[in-house]
Give the backbone structure.
Amino acid sequence: MSVHHLAGMLRHVRRLVGNRPDEATDGTILDRFARAADEAAFATLMRRHGPLVWSVCRRVAGHEQDAEDVYQATFLLLARKAGSIRKRNSVGSWLYGVAYRLALRARCDAARRRQREAQSTDGSQRTACDNLTWRELRETLDVELARLPEKYRAPLLLCYFEGLTQEEAARQLGWSKRSVKDRVERGRKRLRVCLARRGMTLPMTLAGALLSAEPSKAGLPATLIDATLRGAAALARHRSIAGLVSPSVLDLIEPGLKTMFVSKLLISATLILMAATLVSAGLFLGRAGPESKPEAVAAGQAGEKDHVDSYGDQLPRGAMMRLGTIRYRFECSGLAFLPKSETVISAKQGGAIQLWQARTGRLIREIDPGPFMIGGSGFSLSHDGERLALGGSLSDPGKAGWRPAVRVFDIVSGKTIRTFEEPPSKGFNTLALTPDGKLLLTLDREGGLKVAELATGTELLQHKFPGDVMASLALSADGSTLALASGPNTRKIFVWKWQTAEEPREFKTGDYRPRNVAFSPEGKLLAACDDLEVSVRVWDVQSGQLLHKLELPDQERYAHFDVAFSPDGNTVAAYGQTNRRGAVHLWDASSGKFLQRLKLGGFQLAFSSNGRLLASGWMVWDFDAGRELSANDQAHSSSVDRIVTGDKDLVVTASSDNSIRIWDAASGKQKRRLMHDHRIPGIALSPDGTLLVSSSMDDSVCLWDVATGQKIFKLPGHGRLGGRRAVAFTPDGKFFLSWGDDMDLRKWDVKTGKAVAEYAIRPTGIRIFGEDDEPMERDRQQMMRGTIEGIFTPDAKELVLHAPNQAFVFDAASGKELRSFPMEGRLLIGQAISPDGQLFLTSTWGKPVTTKLPDGRLQSSTPMNHPVSLWELARGGLRKQITLPEQGAGPVAFSRDGKLFAAASHRPGDRIRVWDASGQEVRVIEGFRGVVSSLAFMTDGKGLVTGMEDGGALVWDLTHKP
């Protein structure tokens, strides 16, 4: 092809793009769409950048239908991410990068499907200029453009692809003309150098022509444009697009969100892939690559597609489905937004560091902290978002016990930068990183403040504050001033210019017990909350004067646990709780006027840097939309504590979110949601699966119709204290039994809801308080009975109680104690009884290890090696004991036929082990993340359901060989 032909092609493309009559920047137009769902604004963006996106889609994806899918997915991702794109005036460059990566993915997927030699297109899709040499140039140009920094790629695309003058490009980007001219020149030089390394030299005008749409096929199908606009409008209004776009487009959209987070890694991988493709085909200009083996390349690309749940999130290998979702299911002991981002980083107590998208709730990444147990003693993110300091405990192989420690992580690499330890007697109360992430401030329980340098670990400063059991620490935005709430006993607030010779100043707090403190962004105000008092207080930092007592207009008794200022400093937010609910309260910082109550439920608070989002625990409030983003009635919101299974793929789960969910395990869909007013420790299905009984901490026992979800009876429960409940149906389904912390056993008639029998269960040697006992003694006995767990045998004829050092068996028909036998005095984690009622299966913590400390004191700690034990109920002997090598024991379960039993464990690595009746291990499920909180076999024995702490339940295929 001649240079004149290419130049003519470029002119044709410029005519297609045309001059734009509107002079608004991309950012202005995008804001109109993000805030008001302005469809005309989105149409303008499609008109501006549609040819750019279409050409890269056709060029890289190759196949026409794949190109249409990628085009639609690219603009729908723009609609989904409209409120969080950082460089808002260079939307064209953003679209180019997304379209390029999605098109490459579509091409690789197509190659895997066809299972043949990798080819970019077939002959029917090539255009007149699409001979081997021009394809080579185009692919190489795409790779190198994708690698260019945004500030260079954006003006190059506008000027050389979209045909704008530098003045027009400057206006659209919101830059000065001089900046555009300079960056165009620098970008050209960078691109020229990159191409020269590949043995290529060509003018930029030809580069523009090579990346343009072909004259014969530049026009986009009208149906495609219309469908894309309708999908964008639906996303802007937070509606489903499942019926508006094809499944292949949906497959591109959801992984595309994660793709954007790791774009740098993908670009590097793309470069390697493209280079390998070019070399294997001998496509470098003037250079012949070595002989290739296409079949090897195709085999390397082939692979089984990852399974995903109904929300598009990946399932662990071996899992058939997820009941519920893991979106917005992050238990946080601390959280923050990454700077200039709508990505949240949080730390799960005892678990991992998690990064997730605030607008979708999708988990992006997890960082395993290693042999470090994340605690609740501190969370601090550096202002650049690159370092995170966490308080917790450290365990080393070969050393007994856990030691108080602070560990600082590099967020990019996930590696540990440095670890600081304290003696167990002191521990860590709170911590803070300086804004630049170079220094760490820690406060121990004795009030000792230390400042250490992360690079060397050198201690630079010490200061003594009053010691207390709980304290909090905050640094001003510039790091010059620290504020310290000393704790509930000393009840003091100190403010200190810690880098000067000044002494800390003490603010007058009276009887106020400040739990947490926070500086306003400019550092002039200090807010504090008290978890025993409703009011939140604000001081002037310079004078120490109390400015406001922020009250609630309805005087509801919310105890506030965390406080934060909005990024503009105009609003004070505090999270509070009553006995039954939580909420975030907002006040005007200058006037103290109450503004709003948000129905959120998390102990920590964090604003996004643009102030549009507020995270409270795992819940997120969108101020623009005026609603919570994380609401979801189709899934549990917290740990799945109980599971029962029935015939025909029926699964019932109960959670600490006070709900019971009835699922169809064949489809993974929720059929019913049943609600209590409190946690539900006990559930059971009738033998025919038509009825469900539940026992809750709201002091009720309820009978439900499974088919309709109707509550048939609400009956007296077993108190509001403790947390132990057991329920069961008799084999004929005419009666059900209940037991709880009040130590009473009741038998209920299913038809009438009347208690036909009631017995006081009194294990020999364990004192149960009477009416004449003193209140303190009642409380003590209640706490002691909290260590007793109860479970009915499958035939409902016996009640088995597991107490410290002993098991008791009672006759359910008379309430009489039948027998008891000694057991090891360990903390019970899980229990189950075999279908024939002969074996009692338990999982417990290992025996505590006592270690003598250097100061002469003794420290008791729990090691690894926790036992799973099989006991014979008839005679009380220990039949078999299996040791779990992990640091945490989990729940246990028997299969319906009794031929298998299973147990879960966690850290390091979460696992589920399955044994046969002889105790021979037959299966290990691993490679998944998350603590298993409950277990149940499917009735056919071919599947296993695990309730997870993240609120989901996984269904595992036991017939699948790993």
About this structure: The chain has a mean pLDDT of 82. The two ends are 54 Å apart (CA to CA).
